Amino acid sequence: MSDIEIGEPQATESRTDRPTDTLTFDWGRVDVYFGPKSRPWPIHRVVSDGAAQFDEPFSDTQQSRRPAPFDVTLDVHADVPATHPNYPFNERKNGWRDAVGKDVEQIRSRIRGLIQDATFKEAHAQEPNLKLLQRVNPLNPAPVSTTSPAAVKLGPVQGGDNAQGPSPSNVYDISARKPLLHSNLNIDLASEMDAKLRARGQPPDAMQLFSELGSVVADFTETAAKVPGYEQLSGYRAGLSFDKEYAGTNVPNPFSALLVNPFYREVFEPMQDFKSTAGAFVHVMMHEAAHHMIRGHEDSFNRRLAQFDGHLHGSGAKRRLLQATETVLERHWDTYLLGREIHGASSTRNAGKSLVGARFAGGDLGTDARHAEGGNHAFEDGGRRSGVAAGMAGAVDDTRDVESIEDHSISVRYSAVQEYNRIMSEQASTARQAAHEKTRETDYEL
After folding, report:
1. Exposed e or buried b for every residue in 64-81, given b needs 16+ CB within 10 A?
2. What per-residue confidence (pLDDT) applies to 59?
3. By CB atoms within 10 Å of each CB, which of 169, 179, 241, 258 scores lowest?
4. pLDDT in tens, 98-107
C-alpha cells in the first residue's frame, strides 16, 4: 500500500456537489464539505482545488485529540501565489503556515460546531429509545412495575449554521440518580422476556431485573466519582443499553452517560454462572468509567484502567459492587439467561444506529471504532487470526505512523491506512454477520 501523493486528486464520501459552508479570508477561501452521518473510519482531509495536501484530525473540542466520526474535507482555494507571506500552506504543503494561524483556528472552530451539531442530532434520534428505570436497593429491592416506563423526551437541537456548543436541552431535568434504559433493538426485550416467562408459568420479571441492574450501574458511577480525577462521573446518567454492537458505552453527547449491555453475546455468553457474569459486568463498568479520562484504547488507557481498578479494590467498593451484582443475578438468574438468549438470537437486530461513544466490545475492529488505535488493541495477536482480521491487524501495525494520534498530527501514511481499514472493516463486518447466521461459534477476545 503506497502513501497518498501530494497533489493527487482525491474523492471522498464527504464531497458533494455543493460545500456545506464557505469561509472567506484575505488570502482566499475554504470550502467545507461535511458528512453529517457518523461512520467507523471517517476521512479528515485538506485539499487545494481538489488536489490532496495533507490530513488533519478534526475533533468536537479544542482539548480532544480523538478524530470525530464524520467525514470532513477542506478544499482550499488560494488567491495569492505560494511565495506570498499569507499563502495558507507551509513550504512542504504538509501543514498550515503559521502566518494564517488565526484563520485556521476559525476554520477549526466552525468544524467543531458542525461536529457537535451532527453528534447531537444523532443522539436525539435515539430519544424514543431512552426510558427511566426505577432506582432500587439491589440488595433489598422494592417491587417494580412490570409496565414499560415512558420514553424520555429531550429539548430541541439547534441548527447546524449556528452550532457553536452544546444544544439547549432539558436533559438536566433527568436526575442522575435515576437509571436509564436505552434499547436499539428491533424488539421490546422486556415484553418478549415476560411473554416467555408467562408461558413457563412464571410471573413477569424483566423490568425488575432491569431496574436492579440499572441501579447497580447508578451506584457504580456515584462510587467511582469518589476516586480522584473521576469526580465528574457524579453527573453521569447511568444504566443499561441494549445494542448488538457493544457490552458498554461511554456517551459524551448530548449528555454524559455510562451504559452497560448485560446481554452482549461476545462478552457474556461464555459466563455460565451468576458469579462470573457479575465479574464481567463490573469489569465493563470500570472500563467505561476509565474512558472518562481517556477516550481511546492506547497503552495509557490500560494504565488508567489498572489504576482505577486498584482504587476501587483498595477502598472495598469493588467488592461491594460485585456482591450487589451477584445478588441481583442470582435472584433473577433464569430471567437473565432468557434475556441473553433473546438478545443474542439472529432475529434480534439493531433497529437503528448505535449510540456514538467509546465502546467496550468483543469481536469488533477495536472498541472505539473512530480511529485506528483501537484496531491495534483489538487484534493484539498481531496476525495470528486468519482472513480479513489478520490482514487489518497487520496493516495497522506495519504502516501506521506512531506519532499520528499522540502528536495530534495525522500523517499522510495514516490516511492511507485509515481508508484501507475503513474498507476492510466493512468487509469484516459483513463476514462476521454471515458467520453469525451460520454458527454460534465466536472469538471471545475482549
Report:
1. bbbbbbbbbbbbbebeee
2. 84
3. 169
4. 999 999 999 9
**What region does 168 belong to: left with phi over 0, alpha with psi -120 to 50, or beta?**
beta
Over residues 301-351, the pLDDT tens digits come to 888 999 999 999 999 999 999 999 999 999 999 999 999 999 999 999 998
β 28-34/21-25 pair status? antiparallel
SS3 54: strand
pLDDT in the model for residue 120: 73
Q: What is the spatial distance between Cα 94 and Cα 412, in angstroms, rounded to a whole number?
A: 8
Do residues 129 and 184 make contact, with C-beta atoms less than 8 angstroms apart? yes
> What do you get for the CA distance between the two ends of the chain, in Å?
29
Phi, psi for residue 39 in degrees, rounded to 5: -155, 160
Separation of alpha carbons 418 and 421, rounded Å: 5
CA distances to 65, 331, 372 from 410, rounded to whole Å, are 10, 50, 11
Whole-number Å distance between alpha carbons of 438 and 76: 49
Domain range annotation of the chain: 21-118, 130-361
Cell of 3: 502513501
Beta partners for residue 78, in sequence order? 28
Sign for the CA dihedral angle at 308, 311, 314, 320 comes to negative
CA distances from 427 to 73, 143, 146, 354, 394 (A): 24, 47, 41, 19, 16
Residue count of the chain? 446
Q: Specify the pTM.
A: 0.60
Q: Which of 95, 189, 197, 206 is nearest to 146 (CA)?
A: 206
Is residue 80 predicted with pLDDT exceeding 50? yes
User: How far from 141 is each of 69, 213, 256, 413, 443, CA to CA, in Å?
Assistant: 40, 11, 26, 55, 36
Bond into 254 cis (ω within 30):
yes
Q: What are phi and psi of 401, to 5 degrees?
A: -70, 130
323: Cβ contacts below 8 Å, ≥ 6 apart: 139
Grid cell digits, residue 343: 438478545
Cis peptide before 204 (omega within 30 of 0): no
Other Cβ atoms closer than 10 A to 317: 17
